Sequence to fold (95 residues):
Amino acid sequence: MSSGTEGVGRGNVGGGERGGPPRGQGTAAVAGVAVAFPVGIGLALVVEVKYSPPMWVHAVMWPPLLIGLALLLLRFIKSLFVALQYKHRSTSSYD
Fold:
């Protein structure tokens, strides 16, 4: 009878490695932060101070703009990360 605290052994199905940080999500976080800070805070504050629109205008205007800009930046940031990873060989998959 197993207590369940031993963990699971490494399997050979799929040939992938388990463990380590999840791959491929860092670029989305960088793109989100790169857009959210200057646009979501800076530009929204300028619009609020200058025009004083109702809150529903902010709720309708900013989410599509932020999502669109983040998706636009995602392609460029992802290609930058791939190029840097290739240049510095930061993973063991190149060995």
Summary: Residues 26-85 form one domain. The mean pLDDT is 78. Helices lie at 26-51, 55-88. The longest helix spans residues 55-88.
